Amino acid sequence: MKPAFLALSASLCLAALLGPQVRAVVLVEDFDDNQINPALWTAYVYGSGPQIAETDHQLEVAMPGNSSGVDFGVKLASRFLLRGDFDVQVDFRLFTWPYANGVRMGLGMDTQGLLPHPGVERISFGQNDYPGAPREAYLTDFPDGVYGITETGDVTGRLRLVRSGATQTGYYYDAGGWVAIHTGPAPTTDVAVKVATWSGYQFMHWDVTAAYDNFVVNRGDLVWPYGPVGACCLPGGDCLLSTWQDCEEAGGSYVGDSVLCEPDPCDGSPVESFTWGRMKTLFR
Q1: How far apart are CA 160 and CA 91, in angstroms?
Q2: Of 30, 80, 27, whose CA–CA distance to 54 is shortest?
Q3: What pLDDT sits at residue 229?
Q4: 196 contacts: CB under 8 Å, gap ≥ 6
Q5: H/E element holding 245?
């Protein structure tokens, strides 16, 4: 057992000094490790051809022109769950993105499979998909269906999903502020979240590449159904969320269960880890 009281005390003191105007985020994933963190995420590939990898300090996705399947794509689903109201966002970049290519990129609540209720999307409709709608758009696809198709030419941007009670609202970022697309129904149970890129019958068989970056949980209660995860201070000073065992194997110092890397517990005064036996000796 490795207590977190030193890191928690430092965080509480910092919050008291900075005051209520500082909004502390719950979790930040910058995809900066060049490998998908198995303590946070599970990656899925559907069909033949699509690819997903954390590389070049971002989460890159590719849909080669020869991709195939009934529905095909990639999904990165959180291993943590979010309980109650929450607010999450992610950045996106479109690298190889032909006009009207038929690929969707989305941020949503995760359910089994690739397609159910994708969430808030940056979409490229295929040439024969949704006739009359703009080919490049933002929209939401919640349990009540597709709403709020909004034309865009953005090749970089941000998507945001907010759950409040039994509703969810999708947003895109424009001109320095968030623009609401649509509010629809939402499950109230603990849910995982996902970023996903996919297509199907609407795919135009052109190469498509894109990336996600800077996934942030702005607000929400994290639940870890697969066991505790916490901040691990690596030998070089970097902070990584991991299990106790993975941190030990990497030669790091485990700060404590549910201690996050924001604010960074590995920056500034060193945090010393203790075994339970040593703790009992110190306080006898």
Answers
A1: 9
A2: 30
A3: 86
A4: 73, 74, 75, 76, 104, 105, 106, 108, 114, 118
A5: helix 244-249
Compute φ and ψ for 115, nearest 5 degrees. Answer: -95, -30
Among 139, 142, 171, 141, residue whose Cα is nearest residue 158: 171
Average pLDDT of adjacent 10-residue blocks, the chain of 284 residues: 34 37 74 92 96 97 96 95 97 98 97 78 94 97 97 98 98 96 97 96 97 98 88 88 85 88 74 43 44
Q: Where are the beta strands (DSSP E) in the chain?
A: 27-29, 41-48, 51-55, 58-63, 68-78, 81-96, 104-109, 119-124, 136-142, 145-151, 156-164, 167-174, 177-185, 193-199, 208-223, 230-233, 239-242, 253-257
CATH 2.60.120.200 domain range(s) in the chain: 27-223
Tokens, residue 35: 């490998």
Give the pLDDT confidence of 186-229 residue by residue, as tens digits. 999 999 999 999 999 999 999 999 999 999 999 999 999 887 88
58-95 pLDDT tens trace: 999 999 999 999 899 999 999 999 999 999 999 999 99
Tell me the one-letter amino acid at 140: T
Q: What is the residue-averaged pLDDT of the chain? A: 86
Question: CA 32 to CA 214: how far, in whole Å?
Answer: 9
SS3 270: coil
Tokens of 270: 């060193």
How far does the chain reach from its first CA to its final CA, in angstroms? 18
pLDDT digits over 75-85, tens only? 999 999 999 99
Name which of 45, 15, 26, 13 is nearest 241 in CA terms: 26
Other CB atoms within a 10 A radius of the CB of residue 129 amount to: 18
Q: Which pTM does this prediction carry?
A: 0.80
CATH topology of domain 27-223: Jelly Rolls (2.60.120)
| Amino acid at residue number 6 | L
